[in-house]
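Researcher: Here's the sequence for the chain we discussed earlier.
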Amino acid sequence: MGKSKDEKKAAIQRHRDARRELERISRKSKDVTPEYLDANSRVIAAEKDIPWWRR
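Model: Thanks. This is the structure I predict for it:
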């Protein structure tokens, strides 16, 4: 069975928030830092809950 409408909206919001955080960190420094890697991992994890065309 598929996800409910609320679950889908929550997954999209988590992905959006994770991408914004990654963008904020990327603006601070172009170096790959532990903070950047952590934010990037959150984006990757959030992408697993949404369809590819929403990314």
